[in-house]
Amino acid sequence: MRSRDSIFRTCLRGIYSCYWKRSKDRQQKCACCWFSFLSLVSILALGWMYICFVAYNDQNDVNSQAFKKLRVWVNWYMIIIILSAVLATYCLLLLVFSLVHISIKEPLALHCLHKGLLLVWLVIVMLGIGLMSYEWKEEWSTIHLSLQATAPFLHLGAVAALTIISWLVFQSYYRAKTTVLKIFIIGVFMVVLVMVFLSPLLIHSPCLTDTLPPKPRLVGHRGAPMLAPENTIMSFNKSVACDVAAFETDVQLSKDKVPFLMHDTGEKFLQRTTDVDNVFPDQMDNISSDFTWDQLKTLNAGKWFVKTNPFWSVHFLSEEDKNHSLKQNVPSLKELLNFAKERNISLIFDLNTGKQDEDDCNSTQQNLNDDDCNSTVMTILESGIQPNLIWWLPSKCRPYVKKHAPGFRQVYRSLNCTSFEAEKFLNVKYNALSTEEISQHTSNNVTVNLWVVNERWLFSLLWCAGASSVTTDTCHILKDMTRPDWHLAPHVYRIIWITADVVSLVVIIILLFVQGKARNQIFVLESERTVPLLNF
After folding, report:
1. Distance CA 92, CA 100 (A)
2. pLDDT tens per residue, range 361-371
3. 217 by DSSP, 3-state: which?
4. CA 137 to chain centre
């Protein structure tokens, strides 16, 4: 009686079922169904957390899209991460409690509150997956890439988990009262075990290789936006310390045809990163061509960074850097060109005019009028920067640029557009190409720049694949990496894989016999107690 009402059992029972006293009559209906449901939700919770952490590389995309719709800057993605972590932890703890219940023969009486919360969590996960598939479907390509970086570790984790759970599986096997149930339990377990043991046969990762390509060069995405306000001279200056190969930025034209740096386009394009609502409250909804350069250069482009802390990185900055950030203005393209010229750093940019920029390869048609092309190209040429330092990305004006500035390096979004180019240069999103395609392109002397790469695991994977360069927000982190986070020769990984499987199999067999011996001893003890009673 005391063992049944121990503090451990009482607390465990209370947390799981909210019943603090044990009762033989308290049996939950469909206990196995609810246990299966809890297991399913826990697996989905782990899967969703995995998706959230993998997609963390693109968190700024989520926050930017939310700002466009809500006009309020909040780190929405971090809120999603925290909420998902709390709910996943809750589900996993419940699962652990249920497994302990099974091992000590406590009835599985899951409380209605837990059932309700599990249903809510299931709905949230399904909505999240559905929303991502509808609004952010390209992120599934990132999940596929991530498996090439994590699959070897997921395999080892799965082997360890199965080894631990086997104790409960064998316990359930010996407790089963029918042969059919025993066959079902051991059969399912063996199928899962074989699948996990052999899963490395399906693992293909560029980091499983005998040769490691050179480290990709770094391109500062709008400078170093975690250390200073994006698209400001301070931000580009911070990226210089990362030894970047190029600055990446976005160029727009003012009303008087002065090229300036600004990412957001269309209406309210200044609201996120400037104080336009205070300086020009009547022009908050205007587009770039409504403002003269004299008006634009009066705007402050740094206060928003300190106020909103978009990457949660401001508290790492010194007081001097914070004060310097508060004084940043909207820079012109000419200012950046002079800055890049002094430091012999390349420049790549998008030319934003509010229209979609689709690569028209070698089309002879102009998407912009000659004045727009001339203003941008002439600003570059008049700066005196070496032409080969300009990586010309916009398909707009490409024929004009080839005619008037043949020294610019032409950068494309598709390899189909480089048919007549002696030097092939691709600039694509990191998940637009498979690792095999990246390796193939670079081996064929194609320069491949991938954007935007912020996380170490992703940079490591693309490094192993042979990427030429990556555009990044985190140049201050990636610059310190001297090798990928992991890199193994194939034969070394095979040794690790086979060793882990063999050790796990040996432990599982030992647990099987230990459980069997323990059940036989219990059966003998029960028989010895029963026989005298029958004789009496």
Report:
1. 12
2. 654 444 555 67
3. strand
4. 13
